């Protein structure tokens, strides 16, 4: 099959690789029908995530069709259309039993496209299939559902819930790529008073306004002043970091009000300074987090009911084989206007169940 292989910082290629096969009785092999690229993949290519070693197939978000299951898999079978979660779950370890699947110690957590081969491929092996894929109702389109693999649960859990957004709050989202935009969408479930979006790219600030931001500011045009003016000098109740660079995180800690919350979502590859000389007296709560995806079933229900603005987040569609072009468009979002880019294999009217590895 073909897949996007990481060869070290700055180097990837769409190339021939061996087909995946069942390695454990809890595995499923899934044919990838729709897949996307995450800001985290860009961090990996930059070299920010050193656990990703050369030879790894990238990608942790996809929708596909099960082609083969191991003997222990009970909840899906060949032919089922499923959402592949970015987080896999052994279901047995202490963290899985608490719903903290992201912290799984039993071989799950964020493994796809990180410590095992991922979804930017024609086929992918998914471990612990019973707990790591979600069968999709026919009402949900594959290209909408792929946004539930990572960006909606991440923004909702690590941004909105960790940040404890309350009715009436002033919420600032720093970085309005797909993650920040999904945070703007899901923050509105809690009726905040106003949402302020901050980014360097005008196209993304325009998208933030479409999705419900009340005010926007460029990161290089004194967004802190805007937040101060709109909150009578107090600062925002909740500030979310959805970039993953020190300057953005440090800006968030300057924008929060006394007693407020800073929710970090961004993946960081470099240290950021925590200004405790200013923060110690402010009663600020700072949270970090890898998504757990415990909210995925709830978000799937909302999506089936048409209550998530999914379609507006996908700006570009490609064939699966155009992976390198899709990366180019996504990584130059300020020029291309890309939000989420989605890639799909050719349509299969009838499913040929094949044995991977042959
Ligand atoms: N914690 C988790 O579980 C988790 C899951 C998924 C993604 N992430 C992370 O979330 C972040 C956002 O992901 P994405 O897919 O939206 O990425 P993205 O790269 O598409 O978006 C990042 C946005 O930040 C903007 N930006 C860059 N520098 C900035 C600055 N100094 N100030 C303000 N804005 C700035 C960019 O213009 C861009 O719009 C990434 O760091 C990603 O790795 C974390
Ligand atoms: Zn991701
Ligand atoms: Zn576990």
UniProtKB/TrEMBL annotation:
CDD domains per UniProt: FDH_like_ADH2 (cd08286)
Residue span(s) of domain Enoyl reductase (ER): 8-343
InterPro entries: ADH-like_C, ADH-like_N, ADH_Zn_CS, ER, GroES-like_sf, NAD(P)-bd_dom_sf
Taxonomy, superkingdom: Bacteria
SMART domains per the UniProt record, alphabetical: PKS_ER
Transmembrane segments: none
Zinc listed as a keyword: yes
UniProt keyword annotations, A-Z: Metal-binding, Oxidoreductase, Zinc
Needed cofactors: Zn(2+)
Protein family per UniProt: Belongs to the zinc-containing alcohol dehydrogenase family.
Stored PANTHER family: NADP-DEPENDENT ISOPROPANOL DEHYDROGENASE, ZINC-TYPE ALCOHOL DEHYDROGENASE-LIKE
Protein name, UniProt field: Zinc-dependent alcohol dehydrogenase family protein
UniProt source species: Streptomyces virginiae (Streptomyces cinnamonensis)
């Amino acid at each position: 099959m073909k897949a996007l292989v990481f060869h070290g910082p700055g180097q990837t290629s769409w190339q021939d690789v061996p087909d995946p096969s069942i390695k454990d009785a809890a595995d499923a092999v899934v044919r990838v029908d729709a897949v996307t690229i995450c800001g985290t993949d860009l961090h990996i290519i930059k070299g920010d995530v050193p656990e990703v070693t050369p030879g790894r197939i990238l990608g942790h978000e996809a929708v596909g069709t099960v082609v083969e299951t191991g003997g222990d898999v009970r909840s899906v079978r060949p032919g089922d259309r499923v959402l592949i979660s970015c987080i896999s779950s052994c279901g047995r370890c202490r963290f899985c039993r608490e719903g903290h699947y992201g912290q799984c110690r039993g071989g799950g957590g964020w493994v796809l496209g990180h410590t095992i081969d991922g979804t930017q491929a024609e086929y992918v092996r998914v471990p612990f299939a019973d707990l790591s894929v979600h069968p999709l109702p026919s009402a949900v389109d594959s290209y909408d559902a792929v946004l539930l693999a990572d960006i909606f649960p991440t923004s909702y859990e690590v941004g909105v819930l960790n940040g404890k957004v309350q009715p009436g709050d002033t919420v600032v989202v720093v970085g309005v790529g797909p993650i920040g935009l999904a945070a703007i969408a899901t923050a509105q479930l809690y009726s905040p008073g106003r949402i302020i979006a901050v980014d360097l790219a005008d196209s993304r600030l325009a998208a933030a306004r479409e999705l419900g931001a009340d005010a926007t500011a460029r990161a290089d045009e004194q967004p802190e002043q805007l937040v101060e003016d709109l909150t009578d000098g107090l600062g925002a109740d909740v500030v979310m970091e959805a970039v993953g660079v020190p300057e953005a995180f440090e800006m968030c800690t300057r924008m929060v009000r006394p007693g407020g919350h800073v929710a970090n979502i961004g993946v960081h590859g470099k240290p950021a300074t925590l200004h405790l000389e200013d923060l110690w007296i402010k009663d600020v709560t700072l949270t970090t987090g890898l998504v757990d995806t415990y909210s995925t079933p709830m978000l799937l229900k909302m999506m089936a009911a048409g209550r998530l603005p999914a379609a507006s987040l996908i700006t570009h569609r490609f064939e699966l084989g155009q992976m390198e072009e899709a990366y180019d468009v996504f990584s130059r979002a300020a020029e291309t206007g890309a939000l989420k880019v989605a890639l799909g294999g050719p349509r299969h009217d009838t499913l040929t169940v094949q044995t991977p590895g042959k």
